[in-house]
Amino acid sequence: MAAITIDAVPGPRRAAGPVERSRSTTRHHRHRYAPPPGLPRRGSHVSAGGSVLPGGAVTAVALADHALSAVPAVLTVVLVARALEIPEFGGFALGCAVVSLALTLVRFAAGTRLAGIRDRATVRRVTGDLVAATLVPASSAVVAVLVTIAVLPGDPPLGVLLALALVTPVVCVQDVTRLGALACGRPDAALVAGGVVVAVMVLPVASGIRPTPVLSVILWGAATAVGLVVTLRACGARSRLRHGAGVLREPAARADPMVRGVLVAGLGTLWVLALASGVLGAASVGGLVGAAAAVAPVTVLVTGGPLVVAPELTHRRRLRDLPCCGAVALVLAGTALGWGTFLLTLPDGVWEAAFGASGQAVHDLLPWTVVVQFAVGVSASATLGLAARGRGRAITAQAVAYTAVAVVAGTAAAVLTRDPVAVTASLAGAAAASAAVGWVHLTGSPEGPRPGRVPSRSAEER
Questions:
Q1: Mean pLDDT by 10 residues, the chain (462 residues)
Q2: Using an 8 Å Cβ cutoff, are 354 and 78 in contact?
Q3: Fewer CB within 10 Å: N-end or C-end of the chain?
């Protein structure tokens, strides 16, 4: 699922941050620059609370938590796919795409707001406000799923879609508290919570129980609720419902372009999926979402991994940040290719065992889904550099390029070829267009003042 979301990396707009002055060691003051609001200081690996883990261990645990957070959704998709026929699974997959967009919006909005807050009390307060604010996109996703039920042709799986709508708020809120635990310097608690969620889902299946599709979704919601308790205790947040609307109205300088990009590109993807469902049938959407679920852990790393290097990159000069972004692109694209190669070498029987009747459709669409992930990694690395330079408009241009290509090429592929493989290839082309636009803006942009950095004065000004 996550493979069909926009490849955005949270980062700041161009805004002057506070200037700190060191003690004068010469006749002139030397400027020492503070990080922009919301970004950790260079070299810091923890936020409020001061984790007892070493910096490298904190980074590793945080990355592991990002990857583990995708596993429950993947397990749910697998359990439902094994129990439903192909057309019914396609209807469920379209609902999953709506929930995936809502969850991605929540993740980026909360992640950018919490990044770098160094005071534990502030983290608790902001997390509580974000929990209340999360109910708005979560409720919107519930309404969207209900609309999906109403417009789907044939006999959509009403029970499982209603269950999906009910668990959406729980899943979104738990992700906010997970990010709050990370911001508190407790990635270990976030990782434990993720492990608990996976264990609660796996144990019944390992015991030989074959849950129905509705029970599979309810099991996901119940397991997520258990993880929610763990992350709430870790970050100590208390929801303040009356402050939720205020959070949505705040001019979150760094979150706005990122969330806007996620929304624009996500709506473009939903258009392609809805069109494919209407023209090719719901079964085609099941294959698209199933293939995306197979690469979901890598997708989470591709979209969340650049956060690890974002604070350091913000303080680099242009000649140094371009090689850094290039290295990130190689790592992310290489990870996508490596995981995709592993999946493609699996025997055909594995896909039928995992996705039931939809297994062959998932396997057929997997190669182009891997290409999508490759392009997403390259695009995310460019977005990282643009975010560090405060290039919000360039980030929006990436999202617009993705959506334009996805809508035009996806519509043409669905109407002219009636082939799900061609539709998936159109999404790969959209991701490639986003990557091209991002790197053109990144390599052609002037240095300019960094967020949190003020140009030093010339000798004449002194």
A1: 40 39 38 36 42 56 80 90 85 86 82 73 81 77 75 73 90 88 82 90 82 92 91 77 60 62 87 87 84 85 63 57 85 91 90 87 92 92 83 90 95 93 95 95 65 40 40
A2: yes
A3: C
